[in-house]
Amino acid sequence: MTTDADSEPVVLVRVDAGVMLITLNRPERNNGWTIEMEESYFDALAAAANDADVRVIVVTGAGRAFCPGLDINVLSAATDGTRMADRPRRPMNFPLSIPKPIIAAINGACAGIGFIQASCADLRFAAAGAKLTTSFARRGLPAENSLSWILPRIVGTANAMDLLLSGRVVLAEEAKKLGFVNRVVEPDELLPVTMAYAHDLAANCSPRAMATIKRQVLDDWEASLDQSRRRALELVVALEESGSDFKEGVASFREKRPPNFQGLAVVVDDNREWAR
């Protein structure tokens, strides 16, 4: 992974029993977002998508923060009109294109771009007391990078309006009540609980089925009820005909044993574009 000036990797990656743990690793800067971190994180996601040994992805932050948004030095430069990057970037909602479950383990401050990345995860577990905020309205900015599309679909329009218009800080406990966070656990239990959940998915759920379900949920946001029903019927046939996962799922259930599903490797569309 790309390194900061101090030669420490800005993103750490470890794979264990089908789960890739990605750690945003700028603890001395509270994991403030930089182009180097962005590229390293998205590279890791792309690598996970194309690695049949990776079935689930967990992302967390080193130290006391998840990601509080843009590094203050980058943010300050942006106010003077300095472009963040001199090369095309992947869109910030790139994680939604990854055909594997992504779980955000929110260990601390989560704001701005960090909040966007948490929103682009499929599940969010948070440490008790972790602080979350969209922050954009308080910085004179719009809801950036599709957050105005994503957030209402997670928490509903009224709650999204509250979080976006006020930019107020909410604790993990309130975020759970709003439906943004799936689970709240004690800080020292966050990673063990998240990894245990991820390992359960990796061991017992079909990678192809999970990829299909993730795509269904995202695509059906814009589909009618009947379109969703018809598409599901087509997908049942496609999964039954595409390989052995359906047979293995039924056989393992009948035989009361762990399933042995095939891994999934997919090359995702890079889709780079110019951004400010």
List the helices and strands and how they pair.
Layout: E1 11-16, E2 19-24, H1 35-49, E3 56-61, E4 65-67, H2 72-79, E5 102-106, E6 109-111, H3 113-119, E7 123-127, E8 131-133, H4 147-155, H5 157-166, E9 170-171, H6 172-178, E10 183-185, H7 190-204, H8 207-219, H9 225-242, H10 245-254
Parallel strand pairs: 2-3, 3-5, 4-6, 5-7, 6-8, 7-10
Antiparallel strand pairs: 1-2, 8-9
Could you explain the architecture of this structure?
With 276 residues, the chain is an alpha/beta fold. The protein has 2 domains: 11-202, 2-enoyl-CoA Hydratase, Chain A, domain 1; 206-254. The protein is 41% helix and 15% strand. The protein has helices at residues 35-49, 72-79, 113-119, 147-155, 157-166, 172-178, 190-204, 207-219, 225-242, 245-254, and strands at residues 11-16, 19-24, 56-61, 65-67, 102-106, 109-111, 123-127, 131-133, 170-171, 183-185. Strands 1-2-3-5-7-10 form a 6-stranded mixed sheet, sandwiched between helices. Strands 4-6-8-9 form a 4-stranded mixed sheet. α4 packs across α5. The longest helix has 18 residues, at 225-242. It starts with 10 loop residues before the first strand and ends in a 22-residue tail after the last helix. The mean pLDDT is 91.
Strand segment count: 10
How many angstroms separate the termini? Answer: 23 Å
What Rg is obtained from the alpha carbons, in whole angstroms?
19 Å
Q: Helix tally? A: 10
**What number is the mean pLDDT?**
91
Q: How much helix is in the residues?
A: 40-55%
N to C succession of SSEs: EEHEEHEEHEEHHEHEHHHH
Structural class determined from secondary elements:
alpha/beta
- The neighbouring-strand order within the major sheet is 1-2-3-5-7-10
Sheet bearing the most strands, described?
6 strands, mixed
**What is the CATH C-level name of the largest domain?**
Alpha Beta
Shape field: globular
The CATH superfamily of the largest domain bears the name 2-enoyl-CoA Hydratase, Chain A, domain 1
